[in-house]
């Protein structure tokens, strides 16, 4: 009897995993107009340009930002981004290969066509990225502006400040949101 119970629990778990692994996620910005929530075609490499809006002047009482786009972060998100940027163990321009620094805080400065994060338990802080891919687990990525996000890892988070990107999440237990 004990063996058949364990077998049925295992089969149920496999069935649920198989069934749920084909799900897709659509991120909708509740503050955006209805037309902005409609799917947009993916940008091509030749047509993508990072748009940098001039920051609006801030009064002396408002918090400082570390660059374009951060003014769209929540106060908590901006403070956390600033804290992690100061604690970064590595700061670099857009890498030609994957970011594989497990357990580290990595700061990527400037615009990247592609940013591939293959790290576990890491924090990556980036500026403007056209295509962001995350295949690590337990990793958090802060990005100002991003056009497309692809996630295959699990228990990770991606927080952005700009417009809501196109998202393909085939991982599990990921948090993907404006932050």
Quick overview:
With 179 residues, the protein is α/β, with parallel strands linked by helices.
Characterise this structure:
It contains 2 helices and 7 strands. The protein has 179 residues and is of the alpha/beta class. The chain starts with a helix and ends with a strand.
Distance between the termini: 50 Å
Report helical residue fraction: 10-25%
Q: Major sheet, described briefly?
A: 7 strands, parallel
| Rg from Cα | 19 Å
Q: If you average the pLDDT, what whole number results?
A: 74
Low-confidence stretches: 14-26, 38-68
Number of helices: 2
Topology readout:
Blueprint: H1 2-20, H2 75-86, E1 90-93, E2 105-117, E3 123-134, E4 140-151, E5 157-160, E6 166-169, E7 175-178
Parallel strand pairs: 1-2, 2-3, 3-4, 4-5, 4-6, 5-7
Summary tags:
single chain, 179 residues, alpha/beta, seven-stranded parallel sheet, 2 helices, 7 strands, globular
């Amino acid at each position: 009897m004990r063996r058949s119970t364990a077998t049925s629990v295992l089969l149920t778990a496999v069935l649920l995993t198989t069934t749920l692994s084909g799900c897709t996620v659509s991120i909708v910005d509740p503050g955006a107009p209805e037309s902005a929530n409609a799917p947009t075609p993916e940008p091509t490499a030749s047509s993508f340009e990072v748009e940098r809006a001039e920051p609006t002047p801030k009064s002396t009482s408002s918090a400082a930002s570390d660059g374009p786009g951060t003014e769209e972060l929540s106060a908590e998100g901006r403070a956390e981004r600033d804290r992690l940027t100061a604690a970064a163990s590595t700061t670099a321009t857009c890498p030609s290969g994957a970011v594989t620094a497990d357990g580290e805080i990595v700061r990527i400065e400037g615009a990247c066509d592609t940013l591939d994060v293959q790290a576990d338990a890491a924090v990556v802080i980036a500026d403007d990225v056209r295509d962001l891919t995350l295949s690590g687990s337990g990793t958090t990525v802060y990005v100002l502006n991003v056009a497309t996000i692809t996630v295959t890892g699990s228990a990770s988070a991606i927080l952005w400040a700009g417009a809501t990107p196109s998202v393909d999440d085939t991982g599990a237990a990921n948090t993907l949101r404006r932050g």
